[in-house]
Amino acid sequence: MNSPDTTNQQIAEHYDRTQYTSNAFFYSSPGHLRATAHLYGVETAPVERARVLELGCAAGGNLLPFVLAYPEAHAIGVDLSPLQIQQGQKIVQDLGIKNLDLRAMSLTDIDKGFGEFDYIIVHGVFSWVPPEVRQAILRICRENLAPKGIAYISYNTYPGWKAGDIVRDAMLLHSHSASSDEDKLASAKAMLTLLSEGLSAANPLAPSLRGAVAQLQKHSDYYVAHEYLETFNSPCYFLEFADAAQQAGLAYLGDAESHSEISATYGQNVQLNHSLIAMGQPKVLRQQYLDFAIGRNFRKSMAVHQEREAEVAIGPDLERLRDLRWAGFFTRGETPEGGPADRHFYTNHKGGPLNTTETRIIAVAKALSDAWPATLPFGDLVSKVRALGLVEGDESVLEQEVQKALETLFKLNQLRFSLGDGPYDGSHGDAPALIPGFMHLHEASKDPAFGVGRFNLWHDGAKLQLKDAEAFILPHIDGTNTLAQLRTRLRDALQQGKVAATDGKMLTGQRNLDAKAQEMLSKLLDLLKRTGVLAG
Ligand SMILES: C[S@@+](CC[C@H](N)C(=O)[O-])C[C@H]1O[C@@H](n2cnc3c(N)ncnc32)[C@H](O)[C@@H]1O
């Protein structure tokens, strides 16, 4: 058996060797945690000056959007892997960020003296570390959490991971004698063929195994290596997690994706049967029952100090949706051939689908899209919906309609929301500007070894594939050039043959290119707006 120090050393070396992309995750951002905690009845610290700690932060990709959006807040990220921390430190230095401190160290060395934090984030770590590190995570979430603080810990759960366990066991077996990380990955992936194409029709576990393999095959090599081939991967039942948290002095608050705790999200059969069996049971047990019903394999749990347990609601209170500010972006697409004419087909800001026949949803989607990426408070949303004239009725009818539309969109996980101002709210200059840091990360990510993903200020991923003309004009979208100036720059570049048009054609020497330049610019600005990388 290895000593804890040797194990930590091995984990650090593994993360140093295998390229890991450090991304932002909207559901673990302090702003999202604060708004979600409000739905569970719990008061939290405003994000603008919050103190945030992330354990196992990799290169800090999940903290960067936060510190860039809130320069008066402060964040510390710790990770065992010196290489990843160095990558993050370089970005902090290059961007002149003053409110992010990234430290290469083991989280087990954090003690009370490290300070108190309003938000402690531990994403994708808990299940992948030895028991003593899991204990330390819970200890820190108690000892270093401010009285009104929120701790966020995500982890793999049973029963969903039972099939994953079998897949992992088989992959580890077939790769145990491999001499390098590459061989190990190749052998492990070879096993996936047996577990998909080679499964006997009589294997009673076949559907679950096929499902687990199909899930895995959607992911990149680095995900497979980290999720399935790490020395540690210890899923647990939700009940076991809640129990361990309680023993550490924490009370379970709710899931950061709180719609996932509502049984109605999974249809009438689940809702009915769950309510029959879970009636009168404590919150934690109700959630465990729900996990059995849906085969849940991952949780994003929030916790508070145990002394606050009585404040915590049994589930998200949908009446409180009215207290939040809302954001969303929907582009209307073509109705598929033969599709119903009254159905609207949209793509949301993440590229996901939304289709609906409900007028109230159509109206809310339109009102929010006009304001995106900024937020609208409930009252303004009602006014905008009224102004659109799609929904009829007096004030209270309109409020109910907007409330219902928000409930539906919330359960479908289509929106972003905040308690108080969102990260894009506030005044902006007239000239378009990219969000802070974006241009630098966009350039840096041309190097395949660069370890931080691009993001918007909602903590969503924001990868852009740009044509030459678009890439040419992007650095000039910095708040110093008006639309007319940007258009002139692009027109001149096209005319002088410095860049090809977005259709690949060279327009060297051509005159009257203003309209063409305007069209390209408008398309680019639409893309930047949808992706959330324009400041306002
Ligand atoms: C799967 S990665 C998750 C990284 C990031 N939070 C994310 O979700 O993308 C787990 C991270 O935990 C770090 N880690 C593991 N043990 C640790 C420890 N004892 N102290 C600090 N970081 C640790 C690893 O170096 C690695 O970067």
Molecular structure report:
The chain has 536 residues and is α/β, with parallel strands linked by helices. Helices cover 42% and strands 13% of the residues. It contains 19 helices and 14 strands. The chain has helices spanning 4-17, 30-39, 64-69, 82-94, 131-143, 161-175, 181-194, 206-217, 221-228, 238-247, 268-278, 283-294, 359-371, 378-388, 395-411, 438-444, 468-473, 483-495, 514-531; strands at 51-55, 74-79, 100-104, 117-122, 145-158, 236-237, 250-255, 298-305, 325-327, 330-332, 344-348, 353-356, 376-377, 416-418. The strands form 3 sheets. Strands 1, 2, 3, 4, 5, 6, 7 and 8 form an 8-stranded mixed beta sheet that branches. Strands 13-9-14 form a 3-stranded antiparallel beta sheet. 43% of the residues are buried. The structure holds S-adenosylmethionine. S-adenosylmethionine binds at residues 8, 11-12, 15, 22-23, 56-58, 78-81, 84, 106-108, 123-125, 128-129, 133, 226.
Brief sketch in words of this structure:
This protein has about 525 residues and is α/β, with parallel strands linked by helices.
Question: What are the SSEs and their pairings?
Answer:
Layout lengths: L3 H14 L12 H10 L11 E5 L8 H6 L4 E6 L2 H13 L5 E5 L12 E6 L8 H13 L1 E14 L2 H15 L5 H14 L11 H12 L3 H8 L7 E2 H10 L2 E6 L12 H11 L4 H12 L3 E8 L19 E3 L2 E3 L11 E5 L4 E4 L2 H13 L4 E2 H11 L6 H17 L4 E3 L19 H7 L23 H6 L9 H13 L18 H18 L5
Parallel strand pairs: 1-2, 1-4, 2-3, 4-5, 5-6
Antiparallel strand pairs: 5-8, 7-8, 9-13, 9-14, 10-11, 11-12
Helix pairs in contact: 6-7, 6-8, 11-12, 13-14, 14-15, 18-19
Bound molecules: S-adenosylmethionine (SAM).
